[in-house]
Each structure stands twice: as structure tokens, then as C-alpha cells.
Amino acid sequence: MTDSLLDLTGLTKAYPGVVANDDVSLRIAPGEVHALLGENGAGKSTLVKMIYGLVKPDAGQMLMRGESFAPTDPHAARQAGVGMVFQHFSLFDALSVAENIALGMENPPRMRELSQQIRDVSDTYGLPLAPDRTVGDLSAGERQRVEIIRCLLQEPKLLIMDEPTSVLTPQEVEILFKTLRKLSAEGTAILYISHKLEEIRSLCDSATILRLGKVVGHCTPRETSARDMAEMMVGSALKTPTRDSKEPGEVTLRLNNLSARSAHAFGMPLRDISVEVRRGEVLGIGGVAGNGQDELLNALSGETLVGAGMITFDGRDIGLLGPTARRALGVLTAPEERLGHAAVPDMSLTENAMLTGATREGLERGGMLDWGKARSFAEKIIKTFDVRTPGPANAARSLSGGNLQKFVIGREVLQRPELLVVNQPTWGVDASAAAAIRQALLDLASGGTAVIVISQDLDELMEISDNFAALNEGRLSPSRPAQGLTVEEIGLMMGGAHGMEVAHV
Amino acid sequence: MIRLEKRPQPSRALSLSTPIMAVLATFIFGGLLFAALGKDPIEALQTIFWQPLFGDYAFYYRPQLLIKGAPLVLIAIGLSLGFKAGIWNIGAEGQYIMGALFGAGVGLAFYPLEAWYIFPLMVLAGALGGWLWAMIPALLKVRFGTNEILVSLMLVYVAEQFLASMSLGLLKNPEGYGFPGSRNLQQYASAHNAELFAGSGMHWGVVAALIAVIFAYVLLARHRLGFAIRVTGEAPRAARFSGVNPARLVLFCLGTSGLLAGLAGMFEVAGPSGQVTIDFNVGYGFTAIIVAFLGRLHPIGILLAGALMALTYIGGDIAQSNLGLPAAAIQVFQGMLLFFLLALDVFTHYRLRFGAAEAA
Questions:
Q1: Domain encompassing residue A393
Q2: Which parts pass through the membrane (chain B) (predicted)?
Q3: A184 and A208 assigned to the same domain
Q4: For residues A129 and B231, what is the distance between their CA atoms, to the nearest angstrom?
Q5: Residue of A nearest to B232 (CA)
Q6: For chain A, how many structural domains are there in total?
Q7: What is the pLDDT of residues A318-327, one digit of tens each?
Q8: Which residues of A491-500 are buried (b: 16+ CB within 10 A; e: fewer)?
């Protein structure tokens, strides 16, 4: 037992209606980079929350260096040498880097000493970061560095990283991996949560795979193919989306120097975006989160009105038309945020079908709403897209993320769009549902619809796009055929490492 | 530790039964309050809730119920549309005053001409007065992003100054021996909002309130605009996404609530009150806020809540004069009703959990 850092045996945690972790055992050695693999809802988050003291296990035991380890809160976990970098950052935009870090400390040193410590750590581990910068001005990658440095200042023995690369460009991922390898070489163990298999193959020494709360396998990532790991995660063979190849049609959407301010104080304005999309084409738009994705979708949906001539659709200037008028023309969109943007959480699926379907599905006449028709439309979406729910009278909030996503995408797809814009169509959706959504998008394109997929999942974009462009600081790179693009080229289109170079690694 | 846990679906049974439970809790704690004041609680509750409806003088009190209830319902219906969308018109009292001044002003301008069109013109003027007064916070909000709560509330005090100025100046009765206040519209047949059936309390304002209830019900259940109001209240971003224009919605909701409050003021000044006086307004515009929430912003609920509120007013008056209960005790009693309703309302969306806290 002496050679392991953390030993988990028989951990079980049940929530009402679901067993999140069922008899999970895991062993991590000092300096080991251990991957925790699994689909959404497999129980990865619950497991790390137990290690970090956020959730108390119902049964099972944890040993840290051979001693019993049962943190009651994150403070106790940090004391024991566990650090965690969350997928969603908890930083204050209006404060500086050093102030944010001081806020998370028990006894923060003086600001000048702390700044020096931050500089030291950032130099040692190749995480360039100026302590006096305001967090609101930082890129997502830089914000992540703030979180990592915050953890490293406590000199953790075990660093937990939850999906760290979803906000990074490929170049930034390389920098991060160098840091993690250095940490590992110094004896810090890393528990690395991800579903990006190629990354795990390049970084991790060992992997534990979870499915439905249970450990279903261990493997050595370097010796296992990505496809095998994926099938262990899903528990069945994966279907790859297919499409009929054909000639693209005429240009239908034209963005001409599209510029728009963001609705939020720390949002990203759109700057001079020009691109053309043809009928039957799938344009994939990549980029790190927060580089104008939401703003672009809002500009296309009509939630943000833009200047005359900036958006033409089938030769018509639609920049000044609102969402309803655009829908009437066949411009449909599906925003990233499901609850509260694409759907109303406390309203039924019938009402949510009415939300965007009123115009094109003829659910209203002269301002009066036809709830019977709306219910049939909701039922049709549920049936066609295999949405798991007792029925259309259920509130949107009661659906799981993946099911609601199927409903939201299905609602737009079934309205026969001429142009469909989706933002993060498979975010938080399990692999089989994600494949179904991608297939639906490809089928639409085959039928002559122009499809724009905004996503941070590069594998997804490469799988379904005809052309690829990247958003970086509100600017869109020229669109290029997706076939034959290398990861390096894509990374450069996404802005490279945002002007950061690897330092003293 | 006691925690509140959000229910996946709001409980329908509780949503229907909380108003009744709130009334029962008010009975119990109100009874304790009256007992603490040295009054017989059963007698006090009986005086408040039984006397006006079935007591010896019910023939006098029942019409009063309609007279008090109608303006409350009319105003609360308008307010509820905005409240549902998260647009907070707190200044219905001011819109009520302006409606009364516009309506009475038009009526008095024709004095002493007798013609059939005078009363309809007064109705239009009353609606216009309330609407215009509500358009001030609406336009300021749309144009400059001001807070409609503050602006509409402040305008109540401006309207009260207008009211005082009018009763002492422009609208003062030239034959009133120098007393403040206008001519009595009850004595001017063409402008009088008379009872439709003598002794029933049923005047045009009651009819308007009932029409408003039906109108609001259809609007919210079946019309695109009502759907836009509900979506905006639940999820403003989703509303924008679905094509709702937030500015137009602000103008509609504030405008409609002002219009209905103006109508209520006009029917009051031309009917039960009869006169523009300094103390014409008695707080219907503020009480209507309570009525709107007591009726959980649902048209039928508001109708019932308005009736209940009118009952506690009239019953409270009787209890004051017959039992010598202080006016403050009656107000506390009414406050309890709202408190219990809102407190119990939490449980339709949340359930109580006993047990150790657990961070998620």
C-alpha cells in the first residue's frame, strides 16, 4: 500500500433515482497521470467531488498515503494536498489575477509577496501570467492558468483537472501538457478527466473507464486505440455519421463585414466577419469558447440586430429583421444554452415547441395560438428524435441535458430550415445521441439546407464539416475546405497560443 | 438542517390548495392577534367574514363588496400582466388618480349639457389619462433604461399633487362655498356612473372589471401576446430568442395596466365617490398589488382575491366600529394574509428536506 498515493475502495454514492457511483475503486501512484474516462452522466464528476470533499460517499473508503482520508469540505481536502481545477472557472472578472488568488486563500500573504509567488510559479511551470492583470480581460486559456496557479501555490500532491482542454486551442493544450508532465515528473499525481481520447493517449499513464457509475475497465492509453476506449465508454460499437457526397448549391447566406457589439460587459464584439455559405454546405466554425460564438449566433438569429447590408440571405438584407421575420424566411437557430435561452425551463415541451415553431408550423392564426397543434408538433419532435420523456406536458427542466438538446435541435430541424445555425449541438450529450444529432444535421445538408455548426469540439467539426473557419477574438478566419486540414493549421486559425510562448520548461 | 429542494415539476395540488391554506393560517394567527387584544377571536372573525355577507345589515354591505372589489380587480388584472413578465408597475395609484382627473375633467367641461355621449367620452378620457401616466415610466425605461418601479412610484406623489391642485383650482366647484372639491358628478345625470340596478352596487366599473378578467384570461391562455408575457417572465433570453420585442412588451404591459387603473379611477369618481377631492384616492392602486399576488397573477384568482380583499375591508370596518378593534390590527390581519400566501407559495416549487447539508 505504501507505493500508492490515493486508494479508493468500494465508493458508492446514490442520489434520489440514480446511483451516481457504484462500488468504484481506484488507485493512483505518486507522479502518475491517471485518466478518468466516461460519458456525461457516467459518474466522473461525483467521484472527484468525493475526493475533493464536496460530496460525502454513502459507502466505501478512501486512503491517502495509507491513512484514512474523509474530507468533509474542500478546505480539508486542500489541507491533505488535493487541488482541483474546475471546468467552469470561479473568478471575479473585475478583480486582478492576484486578488482573485488571494480570495481563495485561508491566510493570504501581502499582495506584493503573493505577486512574487505567482511570478515564480508561473515561470517554473511555463504558465505565463501577469499577477496585476484584470481577469475580465484574460482569454479562457489564461483564466485556466489562474486556476492552475491557485492550486499549485498550495503545492498539491494530487491535482484534479476536470475537462481542462475544452477551452484551449491545440497550441495551448501543448503548453498545458508540458506543465502537467513537469508536475508529474516532480511527483505530483494528476487525475485527468476528459472524453478527448487522443489527448489522453498522449498524456496519461493509465486510465479508468466509468459507465453508468461503475468501473467498466482499466487500460494503458498509449497501448489502446481511441476507438477501443470509446467503445468501452459507450458499451457498444459506435456508428460514424455518413452523408451522400454531392455538389454544393448556390450561395445562400452572405456575411459582409459583420460587426456587432456584445450584449455583455465582458463579451466579445464581432469584428468584420465575412463569409459565404452555400446550399447543402456544412460550415464548421471552431474556436475557443468566448471568442464570439454566442454573439455570432445572436446576430444570425436576429436577437442582436446588425447594420444594413451585413447579412444577406438569398439576396435579401436580413440584418434588421427580428427572429420571427427571419424564421419566416427559413433562417433557424439553436443556441448553446439550453435552459433559459433555447428553452424555457419551467414550461412544458408543448409550450417550448410553440416558442420557435409558431410561425413555420402554423401553430398560430391571427395571433391566437393553437395548443392542440403545438402538442402534436412536440409529440412529433419527441418521436422523431427519440427524446426520453413521459410526454409533451412535462417541463423542459425535467429532461436530462442530452434529451433536451435532442428536443431543441429536433424542433428546428423539423421546421424544414433553409439555413440552420447551431451552437454546440452535442454539448453534454452522450455519444449515441450526439451521433444521431450529427446525422440529422448531415441529412438536412443533403436536402439542400445550408448548415452552420459552431462548436468547440474539433473532432465533431472535422467529422461533419465541408468547410472550416475559426473564430478568434471576434474575427472569423477565411473558410477553408475541411478535408486535409491538419491540427496545426486549425490551431493557427484559432489564434495559435494567443501570443503566449512556452516559458522555461 | 432544514433545506429547500427544488421540485422537478411544480406541485399542482399545492398550487391549488395554498390559497385556502393561507386563509386558514390567517384565521388562526389573526384569531390569536385579536385574542391578545382582548377581543373574542371567533366573534371578530365572524364580524369580518360573516357579517358583510349574511349578517343583519348584509343588504347594505353586499353592494359595498362590488363597489370596493371592482377597482381592485380592474387594477390588479392590469398589474398582473406586467408582473408576469417581470415589469413592475408600482404606480397604479397615480394612474388611478390621473384617470379620475381626466374623466371628471371631460365630464365637468360639458356641464351642464345633458347628452348621451358625455359618459362614453369620460370613459375614453379616463383610460387615456391612466395610459399616459403609465407611458412616462414605460418610455423612460425603453429609451433610457430607467427603473420602472421607482419612476412609477414617484409619479404617484406627483399625481397626488395634481389631484390637490385640481380640487383647489381648476376643477373646484364654483358653487361650493369655497370648499375644496369639484361638483358632485352624482348630481349630473349625463356624467353619473349610476348603478345599473338600484341598490345592487353594480355599476359600469364592475362590468369593466369582469370584462377585463375574461380578456386577460383569453390573452394569457390563447394569444401570442400573453404567451410572450409568460415566456418573458420565465426566461427573458428565451423570449428574445423566440422573437419577443422587449421594448414593445414594456410599452404594452405598462400601458395596459395604466389604462385599466385609469378606468378604475374614472368609474370611481363618476360613481361611488362622485367628486374630485384632495383625499379622493384611498390606496386601491397599492392594495391591487396585493390582490394581484394573492390571486397568483391568474385572472380568475384575481377575481376571487379582489372579492376576498373587499370583504376584509368591509368586515374590518365593521369590526372597528362594532368591536372597537384598532385600524392597525385590521391592517396587520390583511398583511398576514399576504405573508402566508407568499410563504406557502414557496412549497409549490420547493419541498422541505430534513437532514444533513450537502454541498453539490
A1: 339-415
A2: 12-37, 65-83, 95-111, 117-140, 149-171, 202-220, 249-270, 282-311, 323-344
A3: yes
A4: 43
A5: A344
A6: 3
A7: 999 999 999 9
A8: bbbbbbbbeb
* Residue A240, domain member (yes or no): no
Report the residue of B222, B241, B348 to disrupt the A interface, i.e. the one with the largest count of A CBs within 10 Å.
B241
A251 beta partners: A278
pTM confidence score: 0.80
ipTM of the complex: 0.84
- DSSP structural state of residue A433: H
Three-state secondary-structure class, residue A97:
helix
Reduced to 3 states (helix: H, G, I; strand: E, B; else coil), residue B176 is coil
Are A326 and A432 in contact by the 8 Å Cβ rule? The answer is no
Closest CA to A477 of A458, A494, A456: A494
Based on the fold, state whether residues A256 and A198 are members of the same structural domain: no
Better pLDDT: A500 or A398: A398
Q: How far apart are CA A288 and CA A473, in angstroms?
A: 9
pLDDT in tens, A443-499: 999 999 999 999 988 888 888 999 999 998 889 999 999 888 887 788 788 876 554
Domain boundary among A415, A447, A463: A415
Q: What is the residue extent of each domain of chain B?
A: 40-324
| Least confident range of B2-6, B167-171, B334-338 | B2-6
pLDDT of amino acid A380: 96
Rounded Cα distance between A3 and A5, Å, is: 7
List the one residue out of A241, A216, A238 whose CA is nearest residue A226: A238
Q: CA A156, CA B41: separation in Å to the nearest integer?
A: 67
B8 neighbourhood in chain A, CB within 8 Å: 395, 397-398
Same domain, A398 and A428: no
Which set of grid coordinates corresponds to residue B134? 403609465
C-alpha–C-alpha distance, residues A120 and A127, integer Å: 10
Say whether both A75 and A215 belong to one domain: yes
Beta bridge partners, A13, equal A21
CATH number for A38 = 3.40.50.300
Overall residue count recorded for chain B in this entry? 360
Say which residue, A235 or B207, is predicted with more confidence: B207
In a domain, A505, yes or no: no
Residues A161 and A66 in one domain: yes
Q: Is A73 near chain B, with CB under 8 Å?
A: yes
The gap from C-alpha B247 to its chain's centroid, in whole angstroms, comes to: 25
Question: Which of A415, A444, A467 is at the close of a domain?
Answer: A415
Q: Does A264 touch chain B (CB under 8 A)?
A: no
Q: What is the mean pLDDT of residues A180-207?
A: 88
**More confident: A331 or A223:** A331
**Would residue A117 count as lying in a domain?**
yes
Going through A100-205 in order, the beta strands assigned E by DSSP cover 158-162, 189-194
Residues A57 and A197 both lie in one domain: yes
B243 contact residues in A (CB cutoff 8 A): 302, 322-324, 327, 359
A394 and A442 co-located in one domain: no
Q: Which residues of B touch A355 (CB under 8 A)?
A: 231, 238, 241-242
Q: Is residue A400 part of a domain?
A: yes
Residues 6+ apart with CB under 8 A from A484: none
Supply the mean pLDDT for chain B: 91
CA–CA gap between residue B48 and residue B29 (Å, rounded) = 15
Q: Dump pLDDT digits (tens) for A4-31.
A: 889 999 999 887 767 788 899 999 999 9
Residue closest to A452 by CA, chosen among A463, A437, A464: A464
